[in-house]
């Protein structure tokens, strides 16, 4: 059966409310540790925009510092490169080296604003104060020798300093936030940082989550579990995915095997669910010869991607099986809804039942059960609410899991009911990312 039109309509409703960014993470130095120049950044940004299989959607760049490598406080040459290539930017001020170095970051930020004005600020998605600073002072970060970090109260102070620095400038309206691992965000001792942010940047790598089943088979579930835990802890703030990926080569971490095939699987399961719905900066475009290596291209920047980046099972393009449905959707800043008629029953008839489960915030809604039809469940809650809905599916056709129940946001099935699960997950992702209501199948 075909469930694509409802998902497309719901996603379109969200897209109309809030544009999304898709990009990669970029350091200030090349693999040989030489400083990246403007031409280096331009080559990277142009390659990202022309990656085969991506339809030119990777037009954003997340940086790790405002400072040009090998200088004290000169603005990064990534900025003129971004202006020349029309690349949007998630700016970052490095925040784990103490107040004196942070002052240099602020100086570089103010200099860039003064030098480039609206040519820069019109391209800026947001400003991040720090990157994984809370993780690095956590027991896990210390155990992994991750380097110096920053305490919550220090980050709150830095966020205030950045807001003061941009006040009264053309950058005054830019949202200011922080990027950290999902484990840092769900730790209540860091709530003050969450409160100080306009938005939350989440880094999550199932490959490194070695205390659990982190095989590629479960990586999709593991990632979206961590995303929704972050959403639940975000105090209603938008949650963006600022780092995730799977390595093409490197050591095995518990059950996680680094390989080109597994990197492609992770891309199809995770990237293809996020793109166009949640602001996402993937890790990474190129990092050879690092180990583990997460690059989607190898040591030759202009070589074809190491694996297929075209989203094979994207709900917006899915046309599986023989029947059809139609849908319409509307959205505002507070709610999204969708309706769809029943599809014709056939040999791949699926029985879909939805049952509301654990919710955060005052959430209301109804659930339904149907056979051979698009079953609509509409739930509405405030920005940042998280809804976990149990979805039971069975089918007359042969499927790997003939009948199963799991949280919709992380369910994964193969066979006749697979499209329904993908739609549920995609619509939930779209709704949570924009802080809208929730339209679910």
Question: Which keywords apply here?
Answer:
single chain; alpha/beta; TIM Barrel; 2 domains; 13 helices; 17 strands; globular
Describe the structure.
α1 (4-17) runs parallel beside α13 (418-434) and α11 (216-233) runs parallel beside α12. The chain folds into two domains: 18-282, TIM Barrel (Alpha-Beta Barrel); 328-440, no CATH class. The strands form four sheets. The chain has an eight-stranded parallel sheet. Strands 13-11-15-16 form a four-stranded antiparallel sheet, covered by helices on one side. It has 13 helices and 17 strands. 32% of the residues lie in helices and 20% in strands. It has helices at residues 4-17, 38-49, 78-85, 99-116, 118-121, 133-136, 139-143, 152-166, 182-185, 191-196, 216-233, 260-274, 418-434; strands at residues 22-26, 60-63, 88-93, 124-131, 176-181, 199-203, 239-243, 280-282, 328-331, 336-339, 350-359, 364-365, 369-371, 377-380, 387-395, 403-407, 438-440. By secondary structure, it is an alpha/beta fold. Mean pLDDT is 77; it is low at 1-17, 315-364, 366-380 and 382-441.
């Amino acid at each position: 059966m075909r469930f694509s039109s409802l998902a497309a309509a719901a996603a379109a409703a969200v897209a109309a409310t809030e544009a999304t960014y898709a990009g990669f993470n970029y350091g200030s130095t090349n693999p040989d540790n030489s400083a990246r120049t403007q031409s280096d950044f331009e080559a990277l940004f142009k390659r990202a925009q022309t990656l085969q299989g991506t339809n030119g959607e990777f037009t954003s760049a997340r940086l790790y510092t405002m400072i040009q490598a090998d200088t004290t406080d000169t603005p990064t040459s990534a900025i003129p490169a971004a202006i020349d290539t029309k690349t949007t930017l998630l700016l970052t001020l490095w925040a784990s080296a103490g107040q004196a170095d942070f002052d240099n970051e602020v100086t570089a930020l103010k200099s860039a604003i003064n030098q480039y004005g609206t040519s820069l600020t019109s391209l800026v998605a947001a400003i991040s104060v720090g990157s994984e600073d809370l993780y690095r002072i956590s027991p896990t970060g210390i155990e992994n020798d991750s380097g110096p970090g920053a305490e919550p109260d220090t980050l709150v102070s830095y966020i205030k300093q950045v807001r003061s620095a941009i006040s009264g400038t053309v950058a005054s309206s830019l949202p200011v936030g922080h990027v950290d691992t999902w484990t840092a965000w769900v730790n209540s001792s860091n709530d003050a940082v969450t409160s100080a942010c306009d938005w939350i940047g989440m880094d999550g790598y199932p490959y490194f989550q070695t205390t659990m089943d982190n095989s590629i088979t479960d990586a999709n579930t593991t990632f979206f579990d961590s995303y929704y835990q972050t959403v639940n802890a975000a105090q209603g703030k938008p949650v963006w995915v600022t780092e995730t990926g799977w390595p093409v080569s490197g050591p095995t971490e518990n059950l996680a095997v680094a390989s080109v095939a597994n990197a492609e699987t992770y891309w199809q399961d995770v990237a293809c669910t996020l793109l166009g719905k949640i602001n996402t900066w993937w890790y990474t475009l190129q990092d050879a010869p690092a180990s583990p290596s997460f690059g989607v291209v190898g040591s030759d920047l202009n070589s074809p991607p190491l694996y297929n980046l075209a989203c094979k099972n994207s709900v917006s393009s899915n046309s599986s099986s023989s029947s059809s449905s139609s849908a319409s959707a509307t959205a505002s800043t507070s709610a999204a809804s969708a309706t769809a008629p029943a599809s014709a029953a056939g040999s791949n008839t699926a029985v879909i039942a939805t049952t509301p489960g654990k919710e955060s915030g005052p959430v209301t809604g109804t659930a339904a059960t149907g056979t051979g039809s698009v079953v609509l469940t509409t739930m509405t809650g405030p920005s940042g609410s998280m809804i976990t809905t149990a979805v039971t599916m069975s089918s007359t056709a042969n499927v790997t899991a003939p009948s199963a129940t799991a949280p919709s946001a992380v369910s994964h099935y193969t066979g006749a009911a697979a499209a329904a699960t993908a739609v549920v997950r995609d619509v939930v992702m779209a709704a949570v990312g924009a802080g809208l209501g929730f339209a679910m199948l």
